[in-house]
Structures are given as structure tokens and as C-alpha cells.
């Protein structure tokens, strides 16, 4: 049963370990920014839940609370490392200067998108397709309009879902409206948010020895992009089809159908905004997510039980969007090596933070 990542926040913050991340993250992040170990000042407190979730995974696998705390610290450093590495590309693509997306679930997909896009660049024919929304819109006329695309996608999904004519029409109109309104809503949200971001940057510059910092924000700022929205909508029927045909998969997408945007949004800039590449690449990523969510189901179920959630008599529960490599990495390391392996990952991540923010900067200068 895919119960979705939407319960991840309440799950994480309903535990003592999860609540502790707020203090741990704020204090540790401030220290790291002050000493120049990271350029990301994360104010996206809600999405602290995912590093907290990783800490709970560590607790569930090891049976020790202190290993869960260690997992939280390693997860936070990994979050800042990914945000630092990809900030420039993501900020440039979405047009958010000085903003770093710290949504770890979204950042995780980037490490998959980069090598896959390199492969796409070397496939004859595919590497010549200019599939950004603007180009497609010019080539196919009215069918490239976001409203028309939303209407068509909604109708097709409704047909595949077996809806009657009235519900198919309603879904088509609703999808078209979302495609039209969502970008404007995000733009308005960003217009109100930028003064806050600028104030945070001024404060950090004043109180952190003149160091500049990128303000860490939610991936929700990116989901209004036309390519992200189109890809997300198409991934709904694709994920259901893959779940049925993939041998060995036991996860049926349900709870996360409405949250795919947060798993794939940051992959789109690394597919160069190309809709064709985004759909193919995200479909490939979905295969890994389904298999990992199936494999991780016992661990995720144990996390829910650790938080004293009643999972009922349905057996195992899981989340498609939590079937990503950080969760798998922490689980494999703890099961095979133990806390020493987790600590080793922390040392490596810390070393990479120092390299990209201090050593590489010095060399380039």
C-alpha cells in the first residue's frame, strides 16, 4: 500500500527524534554557514521532515536512538551538499536568484537526471529533438497551449481511469485550469517571498562575517513550471502502468499520485526543460522508485510503528516518493556495516562540503 509522502511530515514531527531536528538543523546550519562549509541557509522548516525521516529509518534499522540522531546530522549535511551543488543551475532555470531548493526528495532525482541526460545527448535523433514547451507550442499551434494540453491530458487520464463522460469532462477542465492558474499563483507567491529572501540575505551578510548565503526554500516554488506540470500529469498513468507490468514490483501507486511533482521538479532543469527528455527520464526514475519502495516497505512500516502509527491489518506500507537513493543508501549501509558506515558517509559528505565551498573556490580564484 502506497500511503504517500504526505504523511511524512506529521509522522516525523510526531516523534521526539523528529522534533529534535528543528534545533539541530538551525544551530548546525548557522555554524556551517558562518564557517563557510555551506552556502545554504535553510529556512524551509517544514521540509526538515525528510532528514528527520531518514533519522527514523536509521533508528528503525539499528534499534538505537543515538544512531537515529547520527542519521539526522548526516542527512542534513547531505541536504546542504546537494543544495550547494545544484543551486546555480536550478536558480538560473527557474529564475530565482539567491534561492537554493533544499527539498531533499526533489534534490535526490538530480543525481539520476545528470547521467541520463548525458546518455540522451549521445543518442542519435533524440539529441536533436528540441522539446521545450515554447518550441513545441510553436510547432503544434493551439495544441501547445498549456490550457489545451491540460484539457487533453485530463481527458486522457479520465478515460484511462474509467470515468464516465461527465467526470472525464470535469477532470479535463480542472486540469486545464490548474495548468493555467498554477504558474501565476507561484509567481505571486515568489513576488511576496523575494523581500523575505532579500531580508534573510542581508541578515546573513551582516551577522555571518560578511558571508553571502543562498536561502533554502521548498520545491513548491518550482512546480508551476509548464514542463514540470506536464511531466507530472503524464507520470500519473505512466506510474500505474509501470506498477502493473514491472516484474517483482509490489507497490501500487496511490497516496503519492498527487505528489510526483516534488520528486521530479528539479530533474527538469537538467533535462534542459525538454518535455520529451523529462517524460522519458522521469519514467526511468519511476522504475527505480517503484522497486526501491517495494524493497524498503518493511523498513518504512517499522518507521510508522516506531512513531506509534496504526498501519492496520494491511501488512506492509510504503511510499513511492520515499523509494529514493538516500533512504536505500542509509538502510544498506546500516544493515551491512552498521553505524561506522553511516559515520563514514558523514565524513565523506563533510569533506565534499569543504571541498566545493572552500578548496574549489580557492583554486578557482
Automatic annotation (TrEMBL):
One GO biological-process annotation of the entry reads: phosphoenolpyruvate-dependent sugar phosphotransferase system
- Name it: Galactitol PTS system EIIC component
Mind listing the UniProt keywords for this protein, alphabetically? Cell membrane, Membrane, Phosphotransferase system, Sugar transport, Transmembrane, Transmembrane helix, Transport
- Please report the record's description of how this protein sits within the membrane: Multi-pass membrane protein
Q: Which GO terms describe its cellular component?
A: plasma membrane
What the entry lists under InterPro entries is as follows:
EIIC-GAT (IPR013853), PTS_EIIC_2 (IPR013014), PTS_sugar-sp_permease (IPR004703)
The keyword Aminoacyl-tRNA synthetase is assigned to this record: no
Any GO molecular function: galactitol transmembrane transporter activity
Residue ranges of every copy of the PTS EIIC type-2 domain listed in the record = 1-365
Q: Where mainly found?
A: membrane
Annotated localization:
Cell membrane
Pfam family example for this protein? EIIC-GAT
Q: Which residues cross the membrane?
A: 17-37, 49-82, 94-120, 140-161, 221-246, 252-271, 283-304, 324-356
Amino acid at each position: 500500500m502506497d500511503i504517500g509522502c504526505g504523511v511524512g511530515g506529521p509522522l516525523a514531527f510526531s516523534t521526539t527524534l523528529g522534533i529534535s531536528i528543528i534545533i539541530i538543523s538551525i544551530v548546525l546550519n548557522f555554524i556551517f554557514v558562518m564557517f563557510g562549509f555551506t552556502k545554504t541557509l535553510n529556512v524551509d522548516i517544514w521540509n526538515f521532515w525528510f532528514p528527520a525521516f531518514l533519522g527514523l529509518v536509521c533508528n528503525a534499522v539499528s534499534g538505537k536512538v543515538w544512531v537515529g540522531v547520527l542519521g539526522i546530522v548526516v542527512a542534513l549535511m547531505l541536504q546542504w551538499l546537494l543544495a550547494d551543488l545544484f543551486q546555480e543551475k536550478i536558480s538560473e532555470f527557474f529564475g530565482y536568484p539567491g534561492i537554493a531548493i533544499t527539498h531533499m526528495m526533489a534534490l535526490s532525482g538530480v543525481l539520476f537526471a545528470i547521467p541520463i541526460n548525458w546518455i540522451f545527448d549521445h543518442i542519435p535523433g533524440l539529441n536533436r529533438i528540441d522539446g521545450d514547451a515554447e518550441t513545441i507550442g510553436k510547432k503544434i499551434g493551439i495544441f501547445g497551449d498549456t490550457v489545451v494540453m491540460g484539457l487533453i491530458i485530463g481527458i486522457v487520464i479520465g478515460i484511462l481511469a474509467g470515468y464516465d463522460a461527465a467526470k472525464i469532462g470535469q477532470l479535463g477542465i480542472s486540469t486545464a485550469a490548474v495548468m493555467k492558474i498554477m504558474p501565476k499563483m507561484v509567481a505571486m507567491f515568489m513576488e511576496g517571498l523575494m523581500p523575505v529572501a532579500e531580508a534573510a540575505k542581508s541578515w546573513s551578510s551582516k551577522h555571518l562575517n560578511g558571508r553571502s548565503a543562498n536561502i533554502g526554500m521548498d520545491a513548491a516554488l518550482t512546480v508551476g513550471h509548464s514542463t514540470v506540470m506536464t511531466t507530472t500529469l503524464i507520470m500519473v498513468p505512466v506510474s500505474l502502468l509501470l506498477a502493473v507490468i514491472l516484474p517483482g514490483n509490489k507497490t501500487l501507486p496511490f497516496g503519492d499520485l498527487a505528489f510526483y511533482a516534488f520528486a521530479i521538479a528539479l530533474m527538469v532543469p537538467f533535462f534542459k526543460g525538454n518535455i520529451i527528455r523529462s517524460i522519458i527520464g522521469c519514467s526511468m526514475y519511476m522504475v527505480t522508485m517503484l522497486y526501491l519502495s517495494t524493497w524498503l516497505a518493511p523498513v518504512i512500516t517499522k518507521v510508522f510503528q516506531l512513531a506509534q502509527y496504526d498501519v492496520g491489518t494491511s501488512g506492509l506500507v510504503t511510499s513511492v516518493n520515499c523509494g529514493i537513493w538516500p533512504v536505500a543508501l542509509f538502510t544498506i549501509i546500516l544493515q551491512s556495516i552498521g553505524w561506522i558506515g553511516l559515520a563514514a558517509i558523514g565524513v565523506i559528505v563533510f569533506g565534499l562540503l569543504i571541498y566545493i565551498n572552500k578548496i574549489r573556490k580557492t583554486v578557482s580564484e
